[in-house]
Structures are given as C-alpha cells and as structure tokens.
Design brief:
Residues 1-21 form the signal peptide. This is DUF4397 domain-containing protein. It comes from Flavobacterium beibuense F44-8. Keywords: Signal. By secondary structure, this protein is mostly beta strands. It has helices at residues 2-19, 83-88; strands spanning 23-25, 42-49, 52-66, 69-76, 92-96, 99-105, 118-125, 134-146, 149-169, 175-193, 201-217, 221-232, 246-259. It has a single domain (25-259), classed as YmcC-like fold (Beta Barrel). A hairpin with a 2-residue loop joins β8 (134-146) and β9. The longest helix has 18 residues, at 2-19. 31% of the residues are buried.
Length: 261
C-alpha cells in the first residue's frame, strides 16, 4: 500500500511539473498571421535593457510603396529602447503567404561600430519553416575612417526558425496559443589599419555579437523578445581606438498592451 502511495505521489509531481512548462515541439503550428498588418494596429512593450526599464510603443502608421509593391510602415512614438522595436522603427513590412518580409535600414543599437544593414524583403518569419532552418541571410562590408583610423567591418545578419509552441507563457504570466519563435543573429568581424603598423589588425575576430529570440503569437504579434549583445576587442597593445573595448547587454521586451485588427 505504501508503495502504491509513493508511485501516485511521483506521478502527480510529474504531471504538475509538465503543466508548468511551455508546450513546445518541432511540429508546425498555425501561425500564418504572425503580425496583423492593418494600419492603426499597435503594440506596447515593457522593456528592460541591462536593468534600465521603460516602454516602447510600436504602431503601423501607413501604407508605403517600394518598387511598385505595397508595404506597411512601422513607427514608434518615441526613440525605442528594445532591439525589436528599434529594428522595425521606420521600416516596411509585408506578408506573403504567411512570410513576413522586411525592407529598410535595421538599427541594432550597437554603439560606434559602423554598419549599413539596409535590407530588401529580408525574411523575418516563415510559418512553415522547420526548426533550425535559415530564413534569410544578408552579408556585407563597410569601410569607414574614424578619428584617423581606417575601419573595415564585415557582417552577416541571419534569421533562423525556432521552436513551435501550442502554448507559451511570457514573463508576466500571460499565456498565448500557437506561438512560433525566430532567432536573429548578427555576426561581425572588425579590422583596423593602425598608423605605423604595416598590416591591418583584426581587433574583433568573427563572432556573433547579437542574438535575439522573438516569439510570435498567431493573430497578435510579437509577445516576447530576449536579446543578448556581447563582444570584446582583441588586445590593442596600449593603442586607444575610437571603439568601445567591450559590450555585454541583456534585453527583455514583453508585450503589455496591444490592439490589432
């Protein structure tokens, strides 16, 4: 009898622990409307950037035409704090068979490092993509003189399909059904030409300096984003460069209020 009670206790604990976890799987979920694209729709996010808190208000302002194709123009009420709202601010988005295509200049918020992330129909979401598959990749190189130094930045921006969730709970406890994740990665390599040194010097070997995972709920929009920015420059042997030596920052963006049609 005691043995049976013990087995029942273990089973009940297992059931409770499972019920507290998000239900994720590799099977496709029904997320064909990851961001409802109607003018006037808006989303308000509670944002925490390395302990500094605030709010981002993102909304669809109007239609815009690019190369004879109609997009929806996104704006924020004030300068955004979080990476997600920053990336969409003043940019254009359209939905093609559930895929979300972004056009415009993406601001990463990484200070001082010159980047030109101007993309055209860059896929930021695909409802049918298998977990781990690459949605879009954008490569480029910028060269710039900064305070007497010639700086070359090679970059690669990639979006990757994440897990599917029949139910997903955001940090404030609110749960959403039919959620699919996407991970955005920015990889950088920085080379500097230093006076009196006869060869270019790699101060930042190729590495992922930004990794952002976004969770989209069908018919609602992005409900939660976690973003990590991190890098550390190589030893410059006492030479002071006009770039921050290191960066380490964690962000959370959590949906608070929204209105969609």
């Amino acid at each position: 009898m005691k043995k049976n009670h013990y087995l029942l206790l273990l089973l009940s604990l297992f059931i409770v622990s499972c019920s507290n976890d998000d239900d994720n799987s590799s099977n496709p979920t029904d997320v064909n409307n990851a961001i409802p694209l109607s003018t006037g729709n808006y989303w308000v996010y509670d944002v925490d950037v390395a302990g500094t808190t605030g709010r981002d208000s993102l909304y669809i302002a109007n239609d815009t035409t690019i190369n004879n194709t109609t997009y929806k123009k996104f704006k924020t009420e004030s300068f955004p704090m979080g990476f997600y709202s920053m990336a969409l601010n003043n940019n254009a988005l359209r939905n093609v068979d559930g895929k979300l295509l972004l056009s415009g200049g993406i601001d990463t918020g990484i200070p001082e490092i010159p980047l030109d992330l101007t993309v055209s129909d860059f896929v930021i979401f695909d409802p049918n993509a298998a977990t781990g598959s690459i949605l879009s990749t954008f490569n480029g190189q910028n060269e710039q003189e900064l305070e007497g130094y010639d700086i070359s930045v090679s970059y690669s921006l990639t979006t990757e399909a994440g897990d599917n969730y029949t139910s997903y709970t955001i940090p404030d406890g609110q749960s959403y059904n039919n959620v699919k994740a996407v991970t955005v990665k920015l990889s950088l390599k920085v080379v500097v030409s230093i006076p009196d040194i006869p060869f270019p010097f790699t101060i930042l070997p190729t590495q992922d300096v930004l990794v952002s995972t976004q969770y989209y709920a069908n018919g609602i929009g992005m409900v939660h984003t976690t973003t990590d920015m991190q890098y550390e420059l190589a030893d410059t042997f006492g030479i002071e460069l006009p770039l921050p030596q290191s960066l380490e920052e964690h962000q959370e963006e959590v949906l608070s209020v929204y209105s969609v049609q």
